[in-house]
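@channel anyone free to eyeball this complex?
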Amino acid sequence: MNQALEDLLRSRAGIWRGLHSDHAAWPVVGSGFPELDTVLPGGGWPLGTLAEIAIPAVGCGELRLLLPAMADLSRAGRHIVWIAPPYQPYAPGLLQAGLALPQLLAVNVDTEDDIPWSAEKLLRSGGCGMVLLWPRRLDNRQIRRLQLAAETGSALAVLFVLPGQSYPGAALRIGVCPSKPGLNLNIIKARGSLRRSRLTIRF
Amino acid sequence: MAATALAHSPQSLPPPTSIAKAPATPAKLWLCAHFPALALEALKIDTTQAIAAIATLNGRPGLYAVSAAARQTGVEPGMTQNAAQALCPALTLLPRDPAAEKAALKRLAEIGLHFSPWVSLDRPDCLLLEIGSCLTLFGGADRFRQQLREACLAAGHTPAIAIAPTAAAAELLAGLGLETQIAEPAQLRSALGPLPIAALALDGKTLARLGNVGIRRLVDLWRLPRDGLARRYGNGLLQRLDSLLGLQPTALNTFHSPPAFAARRELPIGLTRLEHFFPAVAQLAESWADFLRQRDAMALAVALDLHHHRRPSTRLELRFRHGNRDAGHCLALLREKLERSPLPAPVLGVELLCSEIAPFQPAISSLFAEEPTTEANSDWQAMLDQVQNRLGHRALRRFGVAADHRPERAHHHDTTQAAMLTVASPRPLWLLDAPEPLSADSFTLLSAAERIESGWWDNQALRRDYFIGQDRLGRKLWLFRELSGNRDWYLHGLFG
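replying in thread with the prediction:
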């Protein structure tokens, strides 16, 4: 496509460009895996959105997928919050991964209702870089509120969902599955791209 | 000390009624209330039973204080636990709680402030009150003593009260359990003379040397020439004697009760809606903030009482993560709390109480503006306050590492102490609260063993071989095999 046409298309706001959308629209944080960055629209995890990571069971590599981004965000002075984690996050392991421990915060809740409430508060505050959630159920209205809060605070909200759950409101949906060299990723949906892609990353 | 006090016969002291008429200008008169059983009373248990408080004495655990019932069976302070339990099998042993003792003494000092403006907590287990200036208000020393005793007994503490013209003499008498009154400084020598020198709280060496030359009582010391006494036994002994007689001035700190805020507003009618009665709360919060600003203080916690008609009032408690004196922040938290708590009845009055007050610490800003602005940080802190007040004070967890090889102790939630990571081998991202037993055929090993054998010094010893493994789902596991016992496999962490 020649440059004149490109400029003309760019100058009009109302034109949807399908696969060639302009990724400068939202800030991203590099995932730390080059093969994943090339597939994700914008070249990294999109900040200000809600991402859903479908896992077969807790602990199959989903945290290691996010670790490089978490380390970058925490060293940049943004908080990483774990809401209702299924086990205790272990500080020595997190420190070895290069995270700045003072920026980490775990929130333990008593009731299920407190999970979206505290997630929304923390996302909206603007101090968080990433909020990790392990919800058991969320309705569409709560998903929408979380999405808006993530946009307000320019943070990445990550929902870890087990088989049988799905939240269609998420802007990014990735299925993960452990494999011999690392992790198989199945990018089901990514805002700004129509491609569904499968790839394998190595740890 | 108790034994020496018993050996000495109190009959040789002037009888308690021998106090002379108060002089025209009130001279200094000190009252000392000594609480011999404070360590036991502070534990808030029935002190008529055979109980004893344990503390570390000379580097090993021993009995610190013993109740009267236990004393009758022959148990004495300073004994080891085993010896005491052999003498009295029914003895209840409890660890001493110095913080509770301190709090109890503070409560007693508050009571003391009802009697005298000058209350000192400088001496251990004692209240010292200057009463010369206020004796006439109570109608004499006997009545004063009686009223103070009743107030202390009502608070659950038994005092031994002595009155003397110097604080040191009053303390000495009360410490020996001698409830005497000495009115005139001139009577001090004759009244204190028969007391044993062991009561002076000198070091054991000096005491033994004095005993060797036949000095048993204070009067023996006063008979000796001062210069010789100072040369042989040091200036400390002389100063102690002088402070008893009031020749050496002693400065005592006065106790001030910490400030507390309480303000109440009555509402004209019973209100049920938050927006109707919240303005009254806002007014209270403004005066609370003023109160704190005037004292250059900040509050650590506040409580809001909602009063109802013929019903117990509803109490809402707020605790700040850092001290606070911002009315707006406090109101936002109160509103959040009020919105979530149902009202049992219409509200007739609101009352704001605040007793946990600390000196104000201003925000420290960096000289170089590289760090995130303090405003953004204070917003973050305010938001965390909000989250914590809804979820409870244990809901927010920080992360920290500790220098310990035992995996369970290598992390903690207290970020005030910083430590370096001591291990180089990989650690998991999740740690299970308690290791889960694992059958040996459900995983494959991916690494060689890492032996952790540590903790023999605090009875939490562990001997384990840690491995990295993989289960059938493909998850990376952190597992260990016990080296002692039946060598079982356990899952301890996940690499996430």
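from a first look: The first strand of chain A starts at residue 28 and ends at 29.
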